[in-house]
User: What shape does this take?
Amino acid sequence: MSKIDHVQLQSLPTAADARGSMTYVESQNQADIDFAHVRWSTIIPKYPEHFQFAALRSSILIMSLQGGLIIKVFERKVCKTYHLEAPNHSLQIPSGLWIQISRDSDKAVGLIVSSLREEDSGYVYSYEDYCSITKS
Assistant: This one.
């Protein structure tokens, strides 16, 4: 089974009452990763433009805090597309896959949680560098 087959789209639990709702995620409960680093972005390009990267040594969890996100995950010539359209949707991605993120609404906010600290995650932002490193 290839790494891309381990990408998991999931709904996170939401607690709701008369005041509204709150989505939460707990390490090793809803996500099969320990959290070491969190980043969020309000500057996500509108589809078909995209922000792209790979976390070579770190599993990641991507959540849409507001608006819809379109996420394409690549392993060699295989591409799978996911749409996070609600605040309780998340996508868990194993290390070593190429990821493209774009938004389909005007005010999208994305949250990326990593299993390793920033300096240890092996982030690569150039597709040419990624192909060279992974020999894809």
Observations:
- The mean pLDDT is 87.
